[in-house]
Amino acid sequence: xxxxxxxxxxxxxxxxxxxxxxxxxxxxxxxxxxxxxxxxxxxxxxxxxxxxxxxxxxxxxxxxxxxxxxxxxxxxxxxxxxxxxxxxxxxxxxxxxxxxxxxxxxxxxxxxxxxxxxxxxxxxxxxxxxxxxxxxxxxxxxxxxxxxx
Length: 149
Prior knowledge:
The protein is of the alpha+beta class and 149 residues long. The protein has helices at residues 7-12, 17-31, 83-86, and strands spanning 39-43, 48-54, 63-68, 71-76, 99-104, 109-117, 120-127. The strands form two sheets. The chain has a four-stranded antiparallel sheet, with no helix packed on it. Strands 3-4-5 form a three-stranded antiparallel sheet, with no helix packed on it. The longest helix is centred in the first third of the chain and has 15 residues, at 17-31. The chain starts with 6 loop residues before the first helix and ends in a 22-residue tail after the last strand. The mean pLDDT is 79.
């Protein structure tokens, strides 16, 4: 198991402690081995993102999406059916197990909606910066010369 020392980041960057903590958490999550269901995260433009998850075998009513405190939780729960007991599989490659996937959202990132099509779940995200946080140009006042009397 490889661990990273983020101490230099703490020394040179003020206010980025949360970023370093997220990097540490992400590295621990990857090492845990839970990689189901597979997903993609894409940046559509400067403020819009999309998470695409492969949820083959799940219906819309079996998938739940919850956001709370900068965290996005996608949860899939398969309903137990008697049909599974009567079928005989020669090969079983489609996982029908329950899953729970958590994503840490940055500040001011909100879920706009979700759609499911052809076994893929699309979650649309948007970063909405408040006006106070948007870049603004500061005018520089010219120096006035003092006249001697």
